[in-house]
Batch of 4 targets.
Target 1
Amino acid sequence: MSHVRWNRSGKATGPVIEVFADIWCPFAHVGLQTVHAQRARAGRGDVAIWVRAWPLELVNGAPLDVCATWDHVNELRDQVAPDLFLHFDITTFPSSTLDALALAYRAYRTDPQIGELVSFALRDTLFEEGQDVSDSITLQHIAHTFGIASPDESDRSGVMADWHEGEQRGVLGSPHFFCGDENAFCPSLNIRKDPVRGSSIVRDTSRLTDFLARCLSPTPAASPYSAH
């Protein structure tokens, strides 16, 4: 768990890494796990990870394609992250992530540190435990585990507000990272598409390391982060 300090207005007093991402995006799962590990290695538990909603079913006008996601999961597991996606189950792939994104929004609104934990827990539930995060009972269990209320209409509106803010800030896709004046789209991976060989995915540690070095510097750029 991070050790971010907050002032009375709900703003972080240290640097913040914002991530616009969707829960069913396997690239975001790898990216977030990489940033979390890098933060731990750097001993920077004071740095917040603020995972914001980038609802791909609204961005793309349709739910995420389960077969394409299955292909990406296998590519990532084979080429990049053999320790992730251990129990991913195509038969329990969610039909939507809007309710799960609203739960994460509610968690951040309740307490920013709990928000981070819930954001990671939702992805672990989907990709590591093979559960359906569009199922209301699954979401109720996560809410109960972290002691938060179920999301309401204001949380669902918050998901929409995140999406539209992301559009205004030039988000390219899931995941897109921001830290002060720095931003990077999917900085932990280098994805190349070949019409014959298919996708080639490698962990690009140099891009991520450079990005995080600027984020984790002793005098980072001011962050706009505040709790919902």
Target 2
Amino acid sequence: MSVRAIVLAAGQGTRMKSPLPKVLHEIAGKPLVSWVVEAVAAIEPDEITVVIGYGAEEVAAALPAGVRTVHQAEQLGTGHAVMVALAELGSVDGDTVVVLPGDSPLFRPETLRNLVESHGGASATLLTAELADPTGYGRVLREGERVVGIVEEKDADQGQRAVGEVAVSTYAFAGAALSAALREVGSDNAQGEYYLTDVIAVMARDGEVRATPAADADEVLGVNSHDQLAAAAATLRGRINAHWMQAGVWMQDPERTYIDAAVVLEPGARIHADVHLLGGTTVGAGAEVGPSVLAADTTIGPEARIWYSVARGAEIGRGAEVGPYASLRQESVLAEKAKVGTFVETKKTTIGSGSKVPHLSYVGDATIGEGTNVGAGTITCNYDGVRKHPTTIGDRVFVGSDTMLVAPVTLGDDSTTGAGSTITKDVPPGALGVERSPQKVVPGYAAKRARRAAREDDE
């Protein structure tokens, strides 16, 4: 028997009050719909179809290869969305059709697997939950133990709204029974829509409807507003952090640690509080990250140290040190045991093994060799107002404090620059480059300045 999965992701999500389609709001670096698709993919269905509508092109672009999309041009309800999908899929007789919402990112694969396994030969099996506050959810209607229907909250009477068991828009259907039941569904309800929930009463009349409860009620919660998005993000953040701690990563405060789903941490890494690891960041064994670090798409090597700093698209080598208050921009590469220190910014720069840029400097479009020290206040003047130019600094170079390196310029191996120099010409290996005006001393200057000020006041 084939399993066909349909993910409903066509709605705008008006309660989000955002032009971004609801299912594209992100948690841990992934859109909501991606979390759902990954969960259902883990049960290995024969096919996954995502129904798209609002922001269709954007939503389709966020989906992985191999996922079919079906466009619901006019959103006339969840039942209509499934009708549109089945029209594209063709006959599903003999198949199990799993339908689930694209805005429920907390599903675990085992929950969906249990739903399919519980389905057996029933006409329909619905996932249910007991919620302390069921507001907004369809209530499960029973006659004794038998499920006889679902009523949406807007159509429920006072007694039905008191029911705590809710349907969570997630089903396993017998394909033929689903197709037949949808033909009987109308739009005579409070919203004037075709509800998928209405097929349950039809199926209960003609066959067996089962209900299987979710093991964890929080798992089935959908996202319809920013507060619900934040709540779901907190849950997923807890799962991600628990996974890495179980894998051997130390965390000072998991509730203040933010790790995207694609991040990879090696056992022995140490993560302090207020750390944000985003995108494809990796952290090596023994590395110490934080407190207060944002690293996006950055490699942090084994035994490296970064604290109170930002790194974007950078590579931090084994045993290298970054911070505090450093900014590594795109294509910053620190070799083994290199250092970028306090209030230093780098961009498109390679810093060789053991070299240091300890404080108050900007280094851009530069290559620095091994064992070099860049003094405080040094700036590579890489932009002439039209285009960028490179600076090359060799091995074992001593760059004096407050040196301006006007690119393109090269400092040879073992060279030195005098503090306060503006270097516009190459400095050969082993040479000293100094550019300063002769110092002038004016005796009695303070007294002369005071007398001149007094005369101006008298005038």
Target 3
Amino acid sequence: MGESDMNGSEQPARLVHHFESALTQALDGLIGGEFVVTGSDLEGELPSLAQPHIWEQALSLVAGPSLWLVAGKEVWSSLAGLTLEAAGVSDATEGDIRSTWQELVSQTMAGVANGLTADMLREVTVSEGKELSSPPELRQWVTLTITHGKSKSWALQAGWSEPLAAALARRPGEIRTQAGKESKMSKTFDLLLDVALPVSISFGKTALQIREVLKLNTGSIVELNRLISDPVDVVVNDCVIARGEVVVVDGNYGVRINQLASREDRLRSGIAEASAIAGNGK
């Protein structure tokens, strides 16, 4: 088998691996316990599903839709129900169940994008996504089987576009060349990578006169310069490195990243903070 054939055959396996890892992390993070997700080629056409949830996701790597995830109601309602139970919700509505499943799907797609980022040595982010009424016609689908314990098992289908597979079909030498450039980073920078940085979330800002500050007491409301629907800022070293939406993970607040600053901006922020820490330690 030639080099190009070998490289081309690796693409489905890599994408399946990313789906497995991303879905496992999403389930473990929202529900807890040990989930196992395995992917296998789908033989024949997509199964006929009752009230399926079909999600189409675009990525920054290629133009147009790139990823799809299809689950029957028995699957998405069961897994969403487990998620809500883990959060202490016992009287969930149909809308609660659908939105919870969408959260699982969103985290899975973001996880696949993170895996592709590592593959491509460049940042890959999720962009536009939407729910479809019927699945697209793709050349290849895989079945993702989810097991939890010895008796519970669910199956759903994942697919990807040919442009995405083509974008991933890169020459091994090309990847090695870029990896070689990364390895030339100085030992000093390698040490800085281990420095812990304080991360804060900004919901907005405002300015108050001193007389207004002095009037504040219990029950006072400070209005910020941001709508409730606007994304929050993820701040490192007084630098906004990302924006996202507030979510709840295992009873704690979190932020799902929807937009990232450039890698250079994030590196500059990290280096500046690490240098300040090093300077204070002298």
Target 4
Amino acid sequence: MSIRVRIQHTVGSLPLAIDATLPGVGVTAITGPSGCGKTSFLRCIAGLERPAIGEVAVNGVMWQDLGHWIPVHRRAVGYVAQDAALFPHLTVRANLAYGWRRSTHPVPALQREALLDLLGIAELQQRMPHHLSGGERQRVAIARALLRSPCLLLLDEPLAALDAGRKAELLPYLDATSKSLQIPVLYVSHAVDEIARLADHLVVMSAGQVVSHGPLNETLARLDATFDAEDAGVVLQATVTARDATWQLARLAFDGGDLWVRDDGQTVGSAVRVRILARDVSVALVPAQDSSVLNSVPATVEALLPDAHPAQQRVRLRAGPSLLLARLTRRSSVSLGLAPGMRVWLHIKAVAVLR
């Protein structure tokens, strides 16, 4: 199962040249600087723009190639942009019905109810759009898109217009929806925190082209990834293995080590994601001793490259099969004698691990 995209197109003055095969399952995040072509990429897939040269196939179904074109209304795609674009004169229920009635395979009533419960909008159906919060409007827009029974969901910066509170409100719903659905999701965002929370696969774009793509953590850990230096870091999949009620801490096991973090209430055996920023990782030649740092993880240096400032250096390391990043001064790197293949210890404060 895959999404095959080969596009040559010009949008304004931007030449779009994309040749990529993306996973046909899970959430693929698409990121890059403003104006690099992320939205145009989605619009070409949806059929809202017709590229000069284009090939789009979703899980074996050809939507377009040379001499073959399926128009947008016949593509089994759900599309949600920054603006929820609800019909202002219709209730939530009527907005949802608009999507459902335009499906070639209408969602059964029980599944419709389950979807509304999943997105937390079952109690909102009699409201008008102007009586909804920004997060509620986006949840309704996502539900309307899903009620079309799409085989692909496209989300174009759905949280960009929301403040931090509304974003925090909507993220858990997006997370739950992406885990429950059996359709691929392409998710455009600038925000690394959103990507870290939701994505399985990452596409990095620049100047109309895909410059890097792959599994989330491997792509995040690339030292040349186009992220702000302060956001550099990795995402690890882990399992809760113990909870310490005395200190309100939880121990997480990942492929390569263990971490103590604050206890957020997940039961032992639960799968969790954690994000570790490069700036919160210290490199040492020995485990942490007589220190406030709770976590010491053995690792091997893979690569060293310059950072944003000439005084700094980023280090890519591997703990077992897992990749991590550290940021330190070049002076510290030289003092430690860091070099590829060297065995070191990573010191990570429990309070610095993000959930």
